[in-house]
Specification:
The protein is an all-alpha fold. The protein has 18 helices and no strands. It is globular and about 60 Å long. The N terminus is likely disordered.
Length: 327
């Protein structure tokens, strides 16, 4: 059962990490991760028009994007209101699935199992209402890939969805197939799908392509195929020069090889673009390995200063490392 929870959590974390498909005036702010501003604008709109679907979707996504786990019930309630008010709006069902998914990720095994049906049905309804919604299709795909059969998942369902996507969006289907190939260990096919997809100017597809290339690089790293990981990530960096995630995974590849000077440079590069607790944690690890005690302590302390966004294991490891460094 623990592996089941972890599987669903991994799927949901991928879904939440994807670029939100918020409509209208909120999309630019969401892309810039200005979640407070998004929510403020959405609340102002809802004060004037309580049934405005775009505002309800934006507010839900802003709460989820902030990573504040204490507000998950608030996000779910807003998404449920969206579905209730605008039952024919695919976006409402999609954000409900995402909000319930994040709750499953942070809750216990029972919470994960009990909410799986709602998550699956929300994504299915979003696809049904808007067959061209790429975000909805990928969200449902990830659920099928990661959730066990007794919770409504399964590789067969993921393959069927991918096949059904071909006539709707052939390039999206390519990337979906790439995800399936990667999960099955067919690395060469996954790479071919990731690099061969023609996303054009479609931001949603570009995000999916970037994420697939990152996933391939990370998978190679996990298999200790470091040269392959570096090759894929170099290609990804050329294609997505503004990415925050590509340089982070590249730095992790260096760290895994014990190349801590290179890793430190990479993590510091990431921190120029974004302040994430897990980046500070990884920076602390490499600084500690290099014997730079004061800097390592500062990095760990910075990681621990974030109220959210640091996995329990990382938090525990950072606390243990600080104790050891302080003697």
């Amino acid at each position: 059962m623990q592996s089941t929870k972890l599987a669903i959590a991994a799927a949901v974390s991928l879904l939440i990490a994807m670029q939100p498909a918020t409509a209208g005036d909120y999309s630019a702010l969401m892309k810039a991760k200005k979640y407070t501003e998004v929510e403020r604008a959405a609340v102002a709109k809802l004060a004037q028009d309580p049934a405005n679907a775009d505002a309800m979707i934006a507010r839900t996504e802003a709460i989820l994007g902030s990573g504040n786990e204490t507000r998950l019930e608030e996000a779910i309630k807003q998404a449920e209101q969206c579905v209730s008010a605008k039952a024919a709006n695919a976006g409402c069902h999609l954000v409900l699935g995402k909000a319930m998914g994040m709750k499953a990720m942070t809750g216990g095994m029972l919470a994960a199992a009990s909410s799986a049906g709602t998550i699956r049905d929300s994504f299915k309804k979003a696809v049904e209402l808007d067959p061209k919604n790429v975000d909805a299709r990928f969200s449902l795909l990830q659920f099928y890939m990661m959730a066990p059969g007794f919770m409504g998942g399964g590789t067969g369902k993921a393959e069927d969805l991918t096949a059904q996507t071909v006539p709707v969006n052939a390039e999206a289907a390519k990337l979906m197939q790439g995800s399936l190939d990667l999960a099955a260990g067919r690395f060469a096919k996954a790479e071919a799908a990731a690099t061969g997809a023609r996303a054009g100017a479609d931001e949603e597809l570009l995000d999916r392509q970037e994420n697939l290339m990152i996933a391939i690089g990370a998978k190679y790293m996990g298999e200790k195929k470091f040269a392959d990981a570096e090759r894929v990530l170099r290609d990804a960096q050329k294609r997505f020069p503004d990415s925050e995630s590509v340089p982070y995974i590249s730095a992790r590849v260096q760290q895994e090889q014990g190349k801590h000077r290179e890793a430190v440079a990479g993590f510091e590069q990431v921190l120029v673009k974004t302040q994430k607790p897990y980046v500070h944690f990884r920076l602390g690890q490499s600084l500690q390995a290099l014997g730079e005690k004061a800097k390592a302590m500062a990095a760990y302390e910075k990681a621990l200063s974030f109220k959210t966004g640091l996995a329990k294991k990382m938090r525990s490891d950072a606390e243990d490392a600080l104790k050891a460094l302080k003697g």
